Every structure is written in structure tokens, then in C-alpha cells.
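One thing: can you check what follows?
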Amino acid sequence: MAPSVPRTRAVAAIRMKQISLDNQSRMIRRLRTQLATARREADAIKEEHKANQLALEASHKVIAGLTEIGLSMSKKIEMMKGKNQKAKENHVVCHQKFQARIQEAEDSMQAQHLIIEALVEEKDGLLQTIQGLQEANGAPAPFDDEWEEEPEEQPEE
């Protein structure tokens, strides 16, 4: 038995080493599989990152474009507000000028009305004076505020 014991121990040791090597081989294959999976996932993540990066850059361009449009529109709105304010101011000035012209016309009409009233009163006074003079002289009154129209002469044919 003695010579076979070392042999069984040697066989057992070799068997143990073989099992250990088999286990290590399985572990290496599993780790290689995990490494390959991790690499594929990392590649997919890199591709996704690149796609996200491109989308982010496109978003930045869109945002920059929209910001530029917004600023342009803000400037236009401010210009329009300025024009609107100027138009309102011009309207007020025009309205004031128009009111001043109306007032001038009304003042002129009032002055003309006063002049007409004064002339009518003066005419009435003159007519009374004339009538008084005619009555004093015994002549008929020629002015009785009614006008007689003379008949038109018929043209001879």
C-alpha cells in the first residue's frame, strides 16, 4: 500500500489541480464574457453619448437661434413702441393745432358776428336818423325794410 499511497496522493493532487484549472478556466470564460458584455455596453453608451452630444449641440444652436430671434423681435417691439408713442405725440400735437384753429375760427366768427351786430345797429340808427330827417322835412319814407323789385324789361324781338 505504501507505493500506491503516494500515487493516489499524486493523482488526487493532480485531480485537485485539474479541478482548480477547470474552475479557473470557467472563471476566465465567465470574466471574458462579462468583459465582452461590458465592452458592448460601453460601446453602446459611447454611441448614445455621441448621439446625446450631437442632440445637445443641435439644441444649443436652436436655442441660440431662438434667442437671436427673440432679441430681434424685442428690438422691433421697442421700435414699434417708440413709433406708437411718437404717433400718439404727433396726434396730440395735431389735435392741439386743430383745436387752436377751431378756436381761432370761433373767435373770428364771434368778432365778425359782433361787427355785423354793430353794423346792423349802426344801419338801424342811420335809418332812424334818415326817417327823422324826412319826417322833419315832410318827405315820404323811402326805406321801409321792404324792397320792391322793378319788373325786368322785356327785350324787344
Observations:
- The longest helix spans residues 4-137.
